[in-house]
Structure formats: C-alpha cells, structure tokens
Design a protein that fits this description.
Elements (H helix, E strand, L loop, with lengths): L8 E4 L6 H31 L6 H30 L3 E3 H34 L4 H4 L2 H27 L8 E2 L6 H5 L7 H35 L3 H29 L8 H25 L2 H18 L1
Parallel strand pairs: 1-3
Antiparallel strand pairs: 1-2
Helix pairs in contact: 1-2, 1-9, 1-10, 2-3, 2-9, 3-5, 3-7, 3-8, 7-8, 8-9
Function: Odorant receptor.
Organism: Sciurus carolinensis
Pfam families: 7tm_4 (PF13853)
C-alpha cells in the first residue's frame, strides 16, 4: 500500500491512559478473549463433529463463529499487548492491515446475519419447501457472497482511507485503527472521500438490515397465524438467539458508522468499540448455545465420548 504520509507508524492512545486501570483491563480483556476463542472454536468443532448439526442453520452459525473469532483476533491481542507493555505504536502497514480485516469481518458478519434471517424465514414460513430452498449449493453461494462483499468493501474503504495525506499528527485517538479515528488525522480535503465512505457503509447496513426486517416480518405473520402452541414456541425459540445477535450487532454498528467523523466523540466511540470488537464476538456463541437444545445435546455427546475414551 502506498504511504502518502511520509510516516512509518501511528501511535494508538489505547483504551485508557490511567496506569492504575491498565493491569485490571488487561486481565478483563484476556478473560474475554479466551472465552471468545473457546466459545467460537468450540462451536465450530461441535458443528463439524456432530452430523446432526450439518444443516443450513449451523453452516451459517459455524461461519459466524469463524468471523467472530477473526474479528476479535484482529483487535484484542494488540490492545492486550499495549496494556501490558505500554507500547501502543503500530506501523503504517499494520494499521492498514488491521483496518482492512476489521472492515472485512464486520461486513461479512452483517451479511451472515442477513443470510441466517432468510434461513429462519424459509424454515418457519416454507417448512415443506425448506429442503429445496436452502440447498447446499444455495447456502454455499450465500456464504461465499458474504465473503466477496466483505473483501470488496474492505478493499475500497481501506484504500480510500489510506489514499489521504496524513502530514501532521500521528496520534490515533482510539485503541485500534478504526476508520473514523484514522481519517480525522488527514490534512487533505476529505469531504468527497468521506461521503463515499458514509454512503457505502450506509448501503451495507441498510441493505442487510432490510433483508432481516423483511424476513422477520413474514416470519411474524406466519407465527401469529399458528394455532399450535408447540409450533409457536418452537418458532420463537429458533429465532430468539438470532434476534438478540442482530440487535446487539446492528445497534452498535449503526451508532459508530452512520455518523460523519466530525461528529464523533472518541471517548464514546471507545466504549462502543469495546462492545462490538470484544464483547459481541464473545456473546454470540454463548447466546446460541444457551438458547439451543441441539447445541447442548451435541456438547453432551462430545463430553460423553471424551469420558469413554479416557475411561
């Protein structure tokens, strides 16, 4: 990537400048990261090992776990290292790479949630045609489409950001190279460039969210027409975890990225960013496992096999 700044590095301000909090935050973030790794890698392993989970819903969920693992690993280790050593310097190329992968995983995450909403719509509203609607080919194409859109979006937004000139300040008022925090340092005319960024971010958020809302509108209509109490409960149980994941993800992303950089409060952004870069990737596998009996059964099966092999 071309360096228009003449600089070889940026300085991240980190989560906090209070020395007394750094060790505490390091321990907290380490615990969060370990739970994130265990939860997401564990979810992928369960889905891989249990043939009963080889259905579209869990295919999407395994990819969501992979993306959450990648998203957390893009940001959290650098934050932990900064808190432990006090070294918050990040090279120009490392900053660009971190921004690229963060945007990539965030975009893929949003479209995977939209794909999962469509899958839930097909499962509840079209149960008799579900197997012909959500074929392996369709699911594979949906997931590949999510990754392609993520790759293109990350390339455009990162390239657009690092084409600007950064000629004075090297201090990024954030704990990672988020786009608004880096772009605010630019000394070149960025109005048209920022407009492209906002429009692109808005399109992805609105489009994916529109798919989710339409899917759940049809799903809600179908559920309200159900006369069976058992079917009603099953439909709600199936969708509850996904709705929670959608609410937390889109709530924080909308707050962060549908505002011009000039209106950003960096302290507020840090708090919000901790939530969607560290907490949400940790919560998703926990939410899906607690709300899903099939995942619980798969986990018990694995544990029983492990006990038998050890015994």
């Amino acid at each position: 990537m071309k360096n228009n700044t003449g600089a070889s590095e940026f300085i991240l301000l980190g989560v906090t400048s209070t020395p007394e909090l750094q060790i505490t935050l390091f321990l907290v973030f380490t615990l969060i990261y370990l739970v994130t790794l265990a939860g997401n890698l564990g979810m992928m392993t369960l889905i891989l090992l249990d043939s009963r989970l080889h259905i579209p819903m869990y295919f999407f969920l395994s990819n969501l776990s992979l993306v959450d693992f990648g998203s957390s690993s893009t940001v959290t280790p650098k934050v932990m290292a900064g808190l432990l050593t006090g070294n918050n310097v990040i090279s120009y190329n490392a900053c660009a790479s971190q921004m690229f992968f963060f945007v990539f995983f965030a975009t893929v995450d949003s479209y995977l949630l939209a794909s999962m909403a469509y899958d839930r719509y097909a499962g509840v509203c079209k149960p008799l045609h579900y197997s012909t609607i959500m074929t392996r080919t369709v699911c594979t194409r949906l997931v590949l489409g999510c990754y392609v859109i993520g790759l293109l979006t990350a390339s455009v937004q990162t390239g657009d950001t690092f084409c600007l000139s950064y000629c004075v300040s090297k201090v990024v008022h954030h704990f990672f190279c988020d786009i608004p925090a880096v772009r605010i340092l630019a000394c070149s005319n960025e109005h048209s460039s920022e407009l492209i960024l906002v429009l692109l971010s808005s399109f992805h958020i609105v489009f994916a969210l529109l798919i989710i809302l339409i899917s759940y509108l049809y799903l809600l209509i179908t559920v309200l027409k159900m006369h069976s109490g058992e079917g009603y409960q099953k439909a709600l149980s199936t969708c509850a975890a996904h709705l929670l994941a959608v609410s937390t993800f889109y709530g924080t992303v909308t707050i962060m990225h549908l505002k011009p950089s000039s209106s950003h409060s960096m302290d507020t952004d840090k708090f919000t960013s901790v939530f969607y870069t560290m907490v949400i990737p940790m919560l998703n596998p926990v939410v899906y496992s607690l709300r899903n009996q099939e995942v619980k059964n798969a986990f018990k099966k694995v544990v029983q096999k492990a006990k038998c092999s050890l015994g």
